[in-house]
Amino acid sequence: MAGNKTLAIIKPGAVRNKHIGHILSKIEENGYTIAAIKTIQLRLEDAAEFYAVHQGKPFYQELIEFMSSGPIIAMVLLKDNAVEDFRALIGATDPEKAAEGTIRRMFATSKTANAIHGSDSDENAERESSFFFSRQEWLRKTQVGLD
Ligand code: CDP
Ligand code: MG
């Protein structure tokens, strides 16, 4: 059965362009509960660890430099079928290929600066949530009736 949690990141470009409010509205309008949220700036080595799966790919260096170039918003989002539905809401990696109305189509400025990250599996949602938050940070919030 599909899980109910995903990890999202508003990337540095979208933060710099002051799209946080718009993006959070779109997330809430689409039925997600924001169970945990924080502003944080990754060091280069943090971004390298987060995206370690892409190490060696041609876009890796640019990606980790971009992801550590300014503050990001990390969040744990809850909803039935969260991973798959959120990937549909954000759209394709390349904003030019992202469907009309998706977050990347609306707010990305390039393939690297594509506004937002969403976990690609339940396993990675778990791993990525733990990367940014202690279990207590999001569990406590979900236990106080945010749903
Ligand atoms: O984020 P998503 O899962 O859609 O794509 P990915 O293939 O896991 O790549 C991670 C991130 O690397 C993307 O969101 C882009 O920011 C960046 N990327 C890039 O700059 N150029 C590519 N050709 C592919 C990915
Ligand atoms: Mg990915």
Written account of the structure:
The protein has 147 residues and is α+β, with helices and mostly antiparallel strands. It has eight helices and four strands. A four-stranded antiparallel sheet has the order 2-3-1-4, with helices on both faces. The relative contact order is 0.25. The structure holds cytidine-5'-diphosphate (CDP) and magnesium ion (MG). Cytidine-5'-diphosphate (CDP) binds next to loops.
| Helical stretch tally | 8
Strand content: 15-25%
The oligomerization state is single chain
Helix amount, in percent?
Answer: 40-55%
User: Whole-Å distance between the termini?
Assistant: 20 Å
Any low-confidence stretches, pLDDT <50, length ≥5? none
What is the SS-derived class? alpha+beta
Task: Name the ligand types.
Answer: cytidine-5'-diphosphate, magnesium ion
* Largest sheet, strands/sense/barrel: 4 strands, antiparallel
Bulk shape: globular
Instruction: Give the number of DSSP strands.
Output: 4
What is the H/E order? EHHEHHEHHEHH
Radius of gyration: 14 Å
- Strand order in the largest sheet: 2-3-1-4
